[in-house]
Amino acid sequence: MSAVWCNGEPADAAALSAALVNYGHFTSLQVRDRAVQGLDLHLHRLVQATGTLFGTTLEAQQVRRWMAYAVEHAEMADASMRVTVFSRAFDFRDPLAAVPVDVLVAVGAPVQLAAVRAVRSIGYQRELPALKHVGTFGLFQQRRDAMAGGFDDALFLTADGLVSEGTTWNVAFLDGEQLVWPQAPALRGTAEALLQAHWQGPQVQRAYHAAELATATAAFACNASGIWPLGGIDGRLLPDSIALAERARSVMAAVAWQSLDEQAVPSRPPD
User: Fold this and answer.
1) Model confidence pLDDT, tens digit, residues 212-230
2) What burial letters (b/e) apply to 244-253, b meaning 16+ CB within 10 Å?
3) Coil, strand or helix: which one is 196?
4) Is 85 exposed, middle or buried (0-12, 13-18, 19+ CB in 10 A)?
5) How many C-beta atoms lie closer than 10 Å to residue 33's C-beta?
6) CB 3.0-4.6 Å disulfide test: which of 20, 85, 113, 202 passes with 226?
7) Rounded distance between C-alpha atoms, residue 127 and residue 124, angstroms
8) DSSP-derived secondary structure letter, 214
9) Under a CB-based contact definition with an 8 Å cutoff, are residues 31 and 132 in contact?
10) Alpha carbon distance 137, 191 (integer Å)
11) pLDDT over 80 (residue 267)
């Protein structure tokens, strides 16, 4: 079951067709018992990107109410959710005009990513990498190309040979006893931020060069849909990745869930 609302109303054909214009941004998240881990981070992402792309202020609490409304009327206390901000008033001939925005909330079945994946590294960088914008063609094509080559996904490298991010995920490596978060132009994810804030043990955010992939022994990928081990990179096995990913999952399991209803945070962990 899935459902889509625009500004708190069932999305009609006109709203959906306007959302097809390739200009906008979004956030994706998991809902459990009508609550979200890092809800404030998701809302902040939406507010910041709206100002950048549209020159308009987005009212975060209104978006939160629309998110709660969507899961209530879809009768899905547990769900996957995508919140997309676009504008039916946007005109590419006058892109500097500050325009009112529309908020599309789509809900579907919940997911929990956990399977071990083998990836290949490739030189690639998204446009405006710090924004979670709707220009996802290149990401999906890179994933498709990787799968055609016998891998599960792609890990991006900058032109300077720095590890940046995966197609739709962030990555962390184990360097001895220290967790390393690669720093390069990339989308900084909500799961990444929560893990960094709650990680028990040494960690560092630094440039991570492609040459270091040859000596890595463990890595995990993360986004709002889960944490999974990177079992191999460029055909080289990472034997300690499963244990590292399990450690990361235990950290995330202790992170509080923020209610969409602005009530007490549920105590039940995700399934």
Assistant:
1) 999 999 999 999 999 999 9
2) bbebbbebbe
3) helix
4) buried
5) 17
6) 113
7) 10
8) G
9) no
10) 23
11) no
Rounded-to-integer distance, Cα 11 and Cα 71, Å? 15
Hey, what are 35's tokens? 């609550």
pTM tops 0.70: yes
For the chain, the first-to-last Cα distance in angstroms comes to 18
As given in the structure block, the two tokens for residue 24 are: 């906008």
**Interatomic CA distance for residues 158 and 84, integer angstroms:** 27
How does residue 266 score in pLDDT terms, banded at 50, 70 and 90? Answer: very low
Instruction: Write out the two tokens for 100.
Output: 């009112």
Residue 24, sorted as left (phi over 0), alpha (psi -120 to 50) or beta, turns out to be left
At 49-99, the pLDDT tens digits run 999 999 999 999 999 999 999 999 999 989 999 999 999 999 999 999 989
Query: Which residue type sits at 181?
Result: W
Query: Nearest-CA neighbor of 168 among 212, 203, 133?
Result: 133
Average pLDDT for 4-12: 90
Contact 164, 186 (CB under 8 A): yes
Q: Which residue has the tokens 């990680």?
A: 199
Dihedral sign for Cα 100, 17, 126, 216, please.
positive
